[in-house]
Amino acid sequence: MPTWFCSREWFFHVGKFDEGGKGVPEDLLFFYKHIQKGGEVFRVNRCLLLYRYHPQAASHSVLEGTIWNHRVRFLEDRVLSSWTSFTIWNAGKQGKKLYRSLSPANRKKVAAFCDVDEKKITKGFYTYEESEERPKPKIPICHFRDATPPFIICVKLDLTGGAFETNLNTLNLKEGMDYHHFN
């Protein structure tokens, strides 16, 4: 788990933690407010604090779906609000989950899914079956080399023996402008 710290002055500027009670991801919400107010993040590649696991930890009361929903809203507010269209990199489970979680306005901005899986690419499209629209939205699936940036990348890093990272690097894209990770 990443640990971060800031000055007391900045803490009060951001507005303290949301003490909304059990199930509120107060650290995540504070972090998002930190970013929204212009805060920066610097990585320190060494252990600064050791957490001890215990079954009564408050973090166990925060549902995965709650965190997912906050992450999606943050992505929509901070990134997708300024894009007219984008490609979701991953036509699998995570990419489709992201698509279904987007607001209707942002779902309409999805130009395509891209992937490397020939089976998904050969199918050619993803049909959003849960949609109430008629006809149901069909989003094209293409190979990553044929896709158009910007990308929201729903692929976990370091899981493909470097293959994903190599593929991404071949496109000569700039993180934060041409793509954002959402994994």
3D structure, described in words:
One of its GO terms (molecular function) is glycosyltransferase activity. It comes from Buteo japonicus. This is UDP-GlcNAc:betaGal beta-1,3-N-acetylglucosaminyltransferase like 1. With 183 residues, the chain is α/β, with parallel strands linked by helices. It is built from 7 helices and 6 strands. Strands 3-4-2-1-5-6 form a 6-stranded mixed beta sheet. Helix 2 (26-36) runs parallel beside helix 3. The longest helix is centred in the middle third of the chain and has 15 residues, at 64-78. The radius of gyration is 19 Å and the shape is globular. The mean pLDDT is 89.
Sheet-strand content, in percent, reads 5-15%
What characterizes the major β-sheet? 6 strands, mixed
Strand numbers in spatial order across the main sheet: 3-4-2-1-5-6
Shape: globular
> How many distinct helices?
7
What is the strand tally? 6
Q: Report Rg.
A: 19 Å
What do the pLDDT scores average to? 89
First-last Cα distance: 15 Å
Which regions contain 5 or more consecutive residues with pLDDT less than 50? none
Order of helices and strands: HHHEHHEHEEEHE
Q: What percent of residues adopt helix (DSSP H or I)? A: 25-40%
Which class of secondary structure composition applies to the elements? alpha/beta
